[in-house]
Amino acid sequence: MSDDFQRKATEQLTSFYTQFRAELDRKSTTGRYMPYQWWKRPERLSGLWMAWDQMLQEYARELANIINDLTNHVDKLRAWHVIVDPLPDEGKLAATHEFVDQLGTIALGLPYAIKSRFAVAAGHLCHQANMSKGLDDWKDEFPEGNLYLHHIEPFGKDWKKFRPFVLALEPLGGQKFRDASANFRHAYNHGFSPNFVVGISGSVERKVGKDGRVGYTFSQFEPFTLAAVADAGGSAGRGDVRAAGAGRDASRASSGGTCQQHSSISRSISGSGGPTSGAGTTGQRAHAARRRPGR
What are the distances in angstroms from CA 255 to CA 120, 126, 168, 246, 282? Predict the structure, then answer.
């Protein structure tokens, strides 16, 4: 590759990025940012609740961060659409290869990651909060491995806000999103996904009928426009915020039970040599929810 070719390619990509940043800064966000401290906890807790307390703070921060990441990605995709859409195919290919492919791939995968993280957070928090109902029947037994909503149902079903939370969370990454994104995440991880911006992709699918006969279907997929990807991600992001609101309500409901009953339970445990207030230490990352710089 000649030095002159590299220089021209660098100048072109620098120009694209400069235009993108100007467009991004010009427009206001199309989404809603999660606040930093969106949870509620009792003012004083004994060491019995240290795991619950640290989980609540860490999970809530990380959920806010990943939802805000999706909001940022959607805004960036909309800005890139303005810059890339009028370009000739050569320019579209250069910009997509350098900037857009990774951004689009991450944005279309985040709703599933967010849904999974909500399930992990809700399951563990409900399991810990269930101690407030009495330790005689509470056992520290919890599923290992990947968690789905049906795994955490037994731990949250007795909290009145748990069901509304599940109903708000279920649509994330659901059929509507899969249709809007051509089931991109599954195709990307387990097969061959459509391209972004430029390039028709083909597909040959082998099918075996009920009678054992083998057939093949041949398909072609137009590339995603960045506007369509942003719309799909934006719709998922609004669902994330609704789920966060329902999760906040569930957290407040469980923390209310924890606040009312933790003192008597901790007294009974500390009397038998168990944890007392301030026992133990845990590492904690103190970082705010990520927002776009300057916003």
Answer: 17, 10, 20, 14, 20
Does the pLDDT value for residue 19 go beyond 90? yes
Residue 122's contacts (CB-CB under 8 Å, 6 or more residues apart) are 152, 156, 162, 165, 247, 250
At residue 38's C-alpha, the angle toward residues 251 and 159, to 5°, is 10
Q: For position 238, what pLDDT does the model report?
A: 56
- Contact at 8 Å (CB) between 31 and 3? no
From 124-128, 219-223, 285-289, the region with the lowest mean pLDDT: 285-289
Strand spans (E) along 44-83: none
d(CA 163, CA 169): 10
Q: Tell me the per-residue pLDDT of 49-71, one tens digit each, with 9 for 90 and over.
A: 888 888 988 999 999 999 899 99
Read off the pTM: 0.73
pLDDT in tens, 103-129: 999 988 888 899 999 999 999 999 998
Ranges of each domain in the chain: 45-196+225-270
The contacts of residue 172 (CB under 8 Å, 6+ apart) are: 111, 112, 114, 115, 118, 236, 239, 240, 243
Any residues with CB less than 8 A from the CB of 206 and at least 6 apart, and which? 214, 215, 216
**221: helix, strand or coil:** strand
Say which amino acid occupies 287.
Answer: H
Q: Element (H or E) spanning 202, and its range?
A: strand 201-208
Q: For 283-291, which contacts have Cβ atoms below 8 Å and span 24 or more sequence positions? A: 284/54, 284/57, 284/58, 285/58, 285/61, 287/61, 287/65, 288/36, 288/61, 289/33, 289/34, 289/35, 289/36, 289/61, 289/64, 289/65, 289/68, 290/65, 290/68, 290/69, 290/72, 291/33, 291/68, 291/72
User: Of 291, 258, 268, which is closest to residue 34 (Cα–Cα)?
Assistant: 291
